[in-house]
Design brief:
Blueprint lengths: L1 H38 L2 H22 L2 H7 L5 H32 L5 H9 L1 H7 L2 H9 L4 H23 L4 H22 L10 H6 L1 H28 L2 H35 L4 H28 L1 H9 L5 H28 L3 H22 L13 H28 L4 H27 L4 H22 L3 H17 L1
Length: about 500
């Protein structure tokens, strides 16, 4: 009983700091993004969006899935952490050199825009800096002590914001975003090393690296495929439609990821260490999976669907009408994001059990379905109308929503069977919160129609949604709502 209470306390503390981290960082990121979106052009964001495609792959190869493997392993040694650190830094240096020479080819991929050569060579310094922070962050997540991770992220974002906005004011264009990212990464990494109370051994062990290769390589391959299909859309938009359209897509993608990725990362950082700790107790593991499934549904459906409903007044409040074509892209990416969060959650269930091979097979299935949808939409991707310059991109994303729904269903089936539960049980955890949220949408739209300004529409819609959602859950005696309140109570006790 004491062990259970201790685990609950750690979970509450970890969840609290992960939420603080994501809320504070996303707020700072949003404020910076709003300012830069008003100051910079669609092409500026398109240029950076093109570079970020290649940076995403580089960052993935640098980690190679070993950070997941370290969290999954019950008792990693100092040599294990040191080996992964030196591996990350070494691979980062090699990849940077390769990409430095490949910069002209990157420009060639995007209508031979020579501005991309200099931008990419400087921007790629970010993943070298971040490589030095992976293990420091991982150690804190493993110990379920993520307070300093939150602090480093927030301070880094402030430094990046000051740098980016200052350079934008002086007319540096896309370079403002590049140096913003470098400043952010440098400050974050420096703080983690200064406060981490851990120094690596000057040793490298191929045996230690090999011992993590089973889980690590599986997760790396899975993440590689996932990264391909997160960035392939940007590639085709920039290559076949143009950098201005890529700018619209980048904005929709960036702002949707603020919600989707934040929720997914909070759940992963909070739940994976807990699940790994009870992986040898099937009954307890199964009960925890059910609770985490309910908690995710309780949070995700109202948050993301509510954001879809108020998307237009949010964009108008933040950007005026400059980025209106991005609104529908933003909404569709959020719909896809719901399936992404749930799928990521189920991947964590499988990872905690060491079933990385199963995750790889599911990822291949997801990507096959996504490819089919993308190929079907490619002939239409460049289509536009006078009122809708992103008509073709909208068709592409509708296809991806359908593909994500199919993939989620397959992952749901496999995960339920693997953890020893039933598909119906997983669905029963989800459906009530989805239905409640959808039922509130007409009321939100009616309430918003009674107001005039974007701010009033947002406040009216959000207020009515929160009141009715919490109220309906309370009337129906929602267990998860009581559990959430219990976590909040635990956090108060921990603080006191």
């Amino acid at each position: 009983m004491a062990d259970n209470d201790g685990l609950k306390d750690k979970t509450a503390r970890t969840l609290k700091w992960n939420l603080i981290d994501r809320l504070s960082t996303q707020l700072l990121y949003a404020l910076t993004g709003i300012v830069l979106a008003r100051m910079l052009s669609q092409e500026d964001f398109g240029l950076v969006g093109a570079v970020l495609i290649f940076q995403a792959f580089a960052s993935l190869l640098i980690d190679s899935g070993f950070s997941y493997a370290l969290i999954q392993r019950k008792s990693p040694t100092r040599l294990d952490y040191s080996t992964v650190l030196w591996f990350n830094i070494g691979v980062a240096a090699v990849i940077y050199v390769i990409l430095w020479f490949c910069a002209p080819l990157i420009a060639l991929c995007f209508q031979n825009d020579m501005r991309l050569i200099g931008l990419s060579r400087v921007m790629f310094l970010v993943f070298i800096i971040n490589a030095a922070a992976i293990v420091q962050t991982n150690r804190l997540v493993k110990k379920m002590d993520v307070r300093m991770v939150a602090v480093s992220n927030s301070v880094g974002l402030v430094a990046g914001a000051v740098t980016g906005i200052t350079l934008a004011l002086y007319g540096f264009g896309a370079w403002a975003i590049v140096w913003q990212n470098i400043a952010m990464a440098t400050v974050k990494t420096s703080i983690l090393w200064a406060t981490g109370k851990w120094l690596p051994m000057m040793k490298f062990s191929w045996a230690a690296l090999k011992s993590y290769s089973s889980v690590g390589s599986g997760m790396m391959f899975t993440s590689f495929l996932n990264t391909v299909f997160q960035n392939i859309y940007s590639f085709f938009v920039g290559n076949r439609v143009g950098l201005a359209s890529l700018g619209y897509y980048t904005q929709g993608d960036k702002w949707s990821k603020m919600g989707v990725t934040s929720i997914s990362q909070v759940l992963t950082s909070s739940f994976l260490p807990v699940l790994s700790a009870v992986q040898d107790d099937p009954g307890r593991f199964r009960r925890l999976c059910s609770k985490m499934n309910r908690f995710t549904a309780y949070l995700v459906f109202p948050a993301l669907i509510g954001l879809i409903v108020i998307a237009e007044p949010v964009f108008h409040l933040l950007f005026g009408t400059k980025w209106d074509p991005s609104i529908i892209l933003f909404q569709l990416l959020l719909v896809r994001g719901i399936f992404f969060v749930l799928t990521s959650l189920y991947n964590n269930f499988l990872l905690a059990l060491g079933r990385s091979g199963m995750i790889v097979r599911l990822e291949i299935l997801r990507d096959t379905v996504a490819i089919a949808a993308l190929v079907a939409s490619l002939p239409f991707i460049a289509q536009s109308t006078p009122d809708n310059p992103v008509y073709g991109l909208t068709l592409m994303l509708w296809g991806q929503v359908a593909a994500s729904a199919i993939s989620w269903a397959a992952t749901l089936y496999v995960t339920a069977r693997t953890v020893g539960s039933r598909v119906a049980s997983f669905l029963f955890d989800l459906v009530p919160y989805a239905v409640m949220t959808l039922a509130i949408i007409p009321l939100m739209l009616w309430t918003m129609s009674l107001t005039g300004t974007p701010l009033a529409m947002i406040l009216a819609g959000a207020t009515i949604a929160v009141i009715f959602y919490l109220g309906i859950n309370a009337i129906l005696g929602s267990k998860i709502q009581k559990e959430v309140l219990g976590y909040l109570h635990l956090s108060k006790k921990i603080n006191s």
